[in-house]
């Protein structure tokens, strides 16, 4: 059940001591980077004088902006010769950011991913198919190394080519898959086209879903359609990639690996710490990284801490599933909402498929919200559509207080992209 029992179930006080010890090393390393050495000097911060974990509160947050401004080597803590790997965020806006790793960093990352998958129940007897992108994106190589470490047979299928994905699953008896939640749902259509039953015609028993926000309802849909367990996997390139926080078999929040990451939850407006149980932005400090240490890195991802201990016995604290990024928040007619709220409502309607899009336009100077959803089967009677449209609109209005226009489209109409799903199209006048 445990990959590293001593660390995973460490007494809280010992865990905090380990964190403090690693934080001291990290700060001294950070002082070797062009960026932090200047910053520490500016704020008169002496990294050798750190006494408690709270001492980092004196250090200003690091954000994507600083990473961009000091691109590419401003955060490097070792000579470039010691770097063995570079990765990059999938960033949709602006210059992507790059992260560099030493051999030690790659080793620790693989270990964290192995620990995560093992926690969920993956074993060396599993055949693991990795449908995430290999390359600059961290989802491919990150999981690959972790799975090999456990000793699983890895099929590095990469994304796309759905028929081949299914053929591989069938020919090699794949039992575990790493997949985007939106792609897991899309594959169901391909099973159908091939007249195959995902519950019977493949030997899948578990999937790791992550890299994009998804609702509990979407997880259930995946689990029920394939008859498998789906585990939520969270990470970001700046903190290696996958293997930052992961669900255990209790699926009641994601354990953050606190031996490698010190985390805070802050109010993104006031920057003050949020109490346990209250939602805020996750901020990470790396605790076991040589190449590129980050201190108080603002993720923009929103979650809250589950204060109660987990029945699995692990002491590393859990966070809720990620609701989205604070920059995903939509302000429509002055009302704040997250795409996830709309998804949660949509997934409750059995008549509609799993692909959807939120379209925002300006009509007569007003915001207009349209939700486009695919219907699973066609009906002859137009009244059925009319009724469905009304029911969906009412359910969304109850959730977000705005009545959307509902656009029902044929199954397969909404364009799919190979990477993370595009859920929002904002065509509003920006002037
Ligand atoms: P990247 O660095 O390109 O891999 O993107 C990382 C971002 O993807 C995170 O900051 C989150 O916004 C998002 N993300 C990753 N995993 C999850 C997850 N399990 N649930 C929700 N969002 C996720
Ligand atoms: Zn647990």
Describe, in plain words, how this protein is organized in 3D.
- The chain is of the alpha/beta class and 431 residues long.
- It contains eleven helices and 21 strands.
- The protein folds into two domains: 1-326, ANL, N-terminal domain (Rossmann fold); 330-427, ANL, C-terminal domain (GMP Synthetase, Chain A, domain 3, 2-Layer Sandwich).
- Helix 5 crosses helix 6 (138-150) and helix 10 (339-346) packs across helix 11.
- The protein is globular.
- The termini are far apart.
- The structure holds adenosine monophosphate and zinc ion.
- The radius of gyration over CA amounts to 22 Å
The CATH homologous superfamily of the largest domain is termed ANL, N-terminal domain
Helix percentage range: 25-40%
> How far apart lie the N and C ends?
56 Å
CATH architecture of the largest domain: 3-Layer(aba) Sandwich
- How many DSSP H or I helices? 11
* Largest β sheet strand count, sense and barrel closure: 9 strands, mixed
Q: Could you name the CATH topology of the largest domain? A: Rossmann fold
Shape: globular
Bound molecules: adenosine monophosphate, zinc ion
What's the CATH C level of the largest domain?
Alpha Beta
What structural class do the secondary elements suggest? alpha/beta
- Number of individual domains: 2
> What is the number of beta strands?
21
Mean pLDDT figure: 94
The unreliable regions are: none
- Please give the order of strands in the largest beta sheet: 4-3-5-6-7-8-9-14-13
User: How much beta, percentage-wise?
Assistant: 15-25%
């Amino acid at each position: 059940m445990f990959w590293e029992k001593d660390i995973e179930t460490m007494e809280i006080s010992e865990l905090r001591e380990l964190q403090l010890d690693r934080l001291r090393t990290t700060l001294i390393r950070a002082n070797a980077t062009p960026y932090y050495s200047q910053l520490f000097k500016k704020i008169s911060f002496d990294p050798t004088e750190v006494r408690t974990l709270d001492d980092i509160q004196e250090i200003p947050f690091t954000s994507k902006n600083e990473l961009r401004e000091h691109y590419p080597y401003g955060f490097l803590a070792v000579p470039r010769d010691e770097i063995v790997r570079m990765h990059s965020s999938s960033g949709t806006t602006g210059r992507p950011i790059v992260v560099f790793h030493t051999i030690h960093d790659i080793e620790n990352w693989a270990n964290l991913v192995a620990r995560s998958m093992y926690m969920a129940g993956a074993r060396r007897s599993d055949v693991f198919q990795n449908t995430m992108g290999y390359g600059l994106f961290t989802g491919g190589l990150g999981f690959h190394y972790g799975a090999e470490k456990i000793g699983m047979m890895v099929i590095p299928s990469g994304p796309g080519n759905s028929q081949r994905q299914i053929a591989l699953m069938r020919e090699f008896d794949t039992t575990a898959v790493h997949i985007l939640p939106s792609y897991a749902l899309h594959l169901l259509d391909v099973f159908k086209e091939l007249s195959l039953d995902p519950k019977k015609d493949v030997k899948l028993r578990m999937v790791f879903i992550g890299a994009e926000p998804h609702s509990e309802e979407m997880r259930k849909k995946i689990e029920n359609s394939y008859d498998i367990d789906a585990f939520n996997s969270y990470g970001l390139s700046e903190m290696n990639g996958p293997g930052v926080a992961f669900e255990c078999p209790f699926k009641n929040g994601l354990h953050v690996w606190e031996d490698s990451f010190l985390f805070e939850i802050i109010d993104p407006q006031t920057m003050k710490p949020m109490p346990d149980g209250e939602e805020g932005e996750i901020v990470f400090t790396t605790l076991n990284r040589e190449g590129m240490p980050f201190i108080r890195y603002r993720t923009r991802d929103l979650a809250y801490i589950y204060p109660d201990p987990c029945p699995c016995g692990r002491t590393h604290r859990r966070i809720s599933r990620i609701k989205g990024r604070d920059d995903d928040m939509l302000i429509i007619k002055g009302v704040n909402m997250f795409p996830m709220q709309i998804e949660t409502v949509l997934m409750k309607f059995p008549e509609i498929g799993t692909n959807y899009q939120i379209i925002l336009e300006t009509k007569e100077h007003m915001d207009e919200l349209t939700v486009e959803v695919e219907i699973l089967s066609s009906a002859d009677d137009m009244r059925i559509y009319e009724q469905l449209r009304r029911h969906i609109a009412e359910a969304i209005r109850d959730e977000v207080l705005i009545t959307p226009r509902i656009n029902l489209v044929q199954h397969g109409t909404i364009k799919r992209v190979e990477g993370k799903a595009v859920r929002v199209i904002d065509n509003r006048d920006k002037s």
